[in-house]
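Dear Dr. H.,

I hope your travels went smoothly. While you were away I took the liberty of generating a structure for the chain from your last submission, since the lab meeting agenda had it listed for discussion. I wanted you to have the full record in hand beforehand rather than looking at slides cold. The sequence, exactly as received, is reproduced here:
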Amino acid sequence: MGKTYDVITCLFSSIGYVKTLSKLNQTVACMDHHLLPGGHLIFEPWLTQVLWVLRAQKQ
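The corresponding predicted structure, in token form, is as follows:
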């Protein structure tokens, strides 16, 4: 790819398809490699329906 960016996004819970902690670390490191100094990584987390309901009940 050879490019760098101000912002990198990972939306719609797509990070949840990374199956292992090792692969997650590799994924984030790769994103970081392509991020300009002072840039931002934005993740929309993987939330299961159970976590979503529990979170809503606490509010």
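Two observations you may find useful: The first strand starts at residue 5 and ends at 10. Residues 15 and 23 are 10 Å apart (CA to CA).

With kind regards,
E. W.
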